[in-house]
Amino acid sequence: MIIKNRYILTLSPLLAGLLILVVMIAGIGIIFNYTEQNKFKVLNKWEFRLSQFANAKVEEIENKMDERIEQIDDLAKNASLSLFLSTYDSVKNDDVSLSAMQGYVRNLLQASALRFGLIENHKMLSKTNLTMTSEYGLAFLDKNNNLLMSTKYFPRNVKKHNKIIDKAYLSGEIQIIDFYSEKKQQVVYGFVAPVLKVQSLDSNAYVGTVVMLLNPQRDLFSSLKYSQSMAGLYESNLIKRDGNSFIYLSVKNGGFNIFNRISINNSVASYFAYNQPGGVKVLADYNGIDVLVTGREIRNSSWKLVQKISVAESLMASNKSQKYVLTIFALLVVIMAMLFLVIWRHMNSLKWQALCIDFEGRNNLLEIISENVKDKIIILDEKNNIIFMNKNFLQGLPISHDAFLNVHVSYVLGKEFAELIIKSSNDDYAVVLPQTDNDKVFHIESAELSLAGNKPAFLYVLHDISELKQQHYRHEKRDKSVINALIKAADAHDPFCESHSERTRDVAITIAKVMNLTGSQLASLEVASILANMGKLHVSKTILTKTEALTKDESKSLKKHVNYAVDMFSNIEFEGPVLDIIAQKNECLDGSGYPKGLTSHEIMIESRILAVANSFVAMMSARAYRKSHTVKEVLSQLLAQTETQYDRQVVAALFHVCENKMEWNAWQVI
C-alpha cells in the first residue's frame, strides 16, 4: 500500500523574493570565493617563480665560490710552488738560489693573479717590503705564516687569519675566510689552501699556504642586486644569525648595505627563511610589509640567502583582473535574477503539474515492483509503527491486508524479530519468521526515507539467502576436509611435528584475542596458522628428521618451506591476507629473518603473533635433534630474543595467557 499525495504547492511572492535573495547572496559568495582562490593560485605561481629565482641565485653564488676554490686548489698543488716553500728555509740565506726560485714563483703568482682577475698587469706584484696595502689580492705564506710574496696592495699583517690558516693545516682542506669589514666598510672574504711538501709521503706535511683575499662587491654581491620582474622587484639578502640578531648583507640605493644588524623579533620573514630553508611563506619583513619569502642554504658557508618579493606587487595584476571579473559577474547575477523572476511565474504551474504526474507514475511503479518481487519489504515510521508491508511479507502471517497499518512492528512480527530488523545495518541474520516452520537466513538492507512534511521513515528489505548460506557451508566443510588431509600428510611426513599446526593455531588465536585483534584479523590468522607449515611437505623427510646439525645446503632447503607454502595456496582466494601472514612468519624484527629480510615496521602484527606461537609450540615439543623444553624455559628463550627476533608485546601477551593454559604443559611429554 502506497499513500498518494495529489496536493499541488504554489510559491508565494514572498518565497520567490527570498529565493532571489538567496541566489544573489550565493552569487556574491561565489565571487568572493573565486577571488580568494585566484589569489591563492597566483601566489602559488609566484612561490614557484620565487623558488626558481632563489635556486638560480644560490647556484650563481656557489658557482663563483667553487670557481675560486678550484683556482686556489690548482695553485696550491703547483709543483714549483711546493718546491719553493719546501726549500725556502734552506736557501733563504743563499741569494743566488733564492733569487732564481723567487723569479719563477713570482711569475707563477703574476700569471695566476692575472688569470684569476685579481690584478690588471704585472706591475701590481709586490715583495714583502712594500708599505702600500689594501685588503685584496693573492699571497704565498711560509709554514710560520710569514708573508713571502703577494700581489700589490695585499695586507702585510696576516695575523688576523692565523686561526683559519691553522685550521687549513689541521684539516688539509681549503678553508673559507668569512666576510669581514675593514676601513670605510671595505668588505673582504677569501680562501686559504695548504701547500703540501714536495714528494712527501706524509699527507699532513704542509710547508705553507696560498691566501686569496677578494672583494665580494665585485665577486659575489652582484648576485644580490635587485631583479625586475613583471610584478615588481625581487630582493636578495645574505643573512647570518648572531645571538638574537640577524646580520644582513644587502643591496641598498644602488650600493650595498653591509653588516646591517636587525633583531630577530623584528623580522618574522627572515627568521622563517633562515630556519626553514626551502620553505615558502607569506610573512611580514623588517619593514612590516607582507612579502612572499623563501630561504636557501649556501654550500660551505654560514650565510644563507633570503629571497623575497612584495605580496602587493605580485598580486597587482591579479587584483585588477579580479575587480573586472567581480563587476561582470555581479551584473550577470543581477540579470539572471531578473530573468528568473520573469520566467518563474510562467513556469511555476507547469513545473508542479509535471512533478505531480511524475510522482504518480513513480508511485504506481513502486506498487508494481513491491508487490511482485520475492524480497520481503516493510516500511516503519519513526516510532516503528508499520506504514507498508508487501504481499510477500504478509504471506503466512495471521493478519489481514490493512490490519497492520499504524501497528507497532513487535505486535505483528514478535519482539525478537522486530528488534533484529530495527537494529540491522546490512548484516546477515538467521531468524525464524512468525507462523513458519523453517529457519531462514535473510540479508537485511535498510534505508532512511523522507515522507511528506519531512517526516522520517525507514525502509527494510529482507532478501532470502538461505541457499547461498547452505552452499557456503558445504564449501567451507569441503575446505576443512582438504586442510585436515594436508595436516595428516604433514604429520606423516614429519612425525615429530604431529599436531603442530592445530597447537600453533590455538596459541596464536589466544594471543591475538588478548591483543584485541579484529574478527577479520582473527579469521585470517587462524587459516594462516593451520597452513603455515604445509610447505614442509616439499622438504626432504631426511632433513626434517635429521638428528645432527643441518648443513648449509640443508638449512637453505628447509628455509624454502615458506615459499613452498605460499606457492601451494597461491591460486586460492582467501578472505584476508592469509598468504602475506604465512610469507612473513619467519621474518625477524632486526631484518635477519627470511625469505625477504623484512624489519619491524614491515612485518604484519598477525605474522609477529604467528612467529611467536610457532616457536612456542616447536620448543615445547620434542624434535629429532633435541628434547622438549618446559613452558618456563620456552618463555625465557622467547623473552631473550625480543627486539631482535620477536615482538615484545606479543611475548608479553603469551606470558599472560600461559598462566591460565595449564593444558599446554602436556605438550612437553609428546
Automatic annotation (TrEMBL):
The chain crosses the membrane at residues 7-32, 324-344. Keywords: Coiled coil, Membrane, Transmembrane, Transmembrane helix. The keyword Cytoplasm does not apply. Residues 51-78 form a coiled coil. Residues 475-670 form the HD-GYP domain. This is HD-GYP domain-containing protein. It comes from hydrothermal vent metagenome.
